[in-house]
């Protein structure tokens, strides 16, 4: 309930501001009020029926208009896919764009879809953390910095928190080991990562990508 009341408060504030500055911008208070009501209506419709995926779709479509965006995303996801495969984690699917992600019913902004682990011991947590770290690392290697790793870092934090609560291993130790593991794999198979990136850009299905990885097993 807190997020709903907060949204109403923000909407009321926007309504007040738009009604106040509307005339200076050539907008009548009625038009400003209508715009706010429509915006709030869209927000709640999306939250109730699509779990926020419509708003994510719109934001993603806008972001995709940036020059070089698709190439950068392919580089990022190829990093995940390469490291996951090498560490024995099944990758079930991937998406590169907002519309493709929305069509397939996946949450968030897309990317690789990993199989849910049957167990979470120290080795598995390290492998999954390395896989999620690999996307941002691949970006850093090719572009000098990472700009698309926020969701990955959230997943890593959840894994490390679970490990800490269970007494499996200290979170910092697991994180450091995962970073070294991901980096070593990406450096060792840099050329394969570039080939895989091109396959993702070409729209090759996940089965074809796995075949490429299997054919060039280091």
From TrEMBL:
This is ATP-dependent Zn protease. Gene3D superfamilies: Peptidase M41. GO terms for biological process: proteolysis. GO terms for molecular function: ATP binding; ATP-dependent peptidase activity; metalloendopeptidase activity. It comes from Gloeobacter kilaueensis (strain ATCC BAA-2537 / CCAP 1431/1 / ULC 316 / JS1). It comes from the Bacteria.
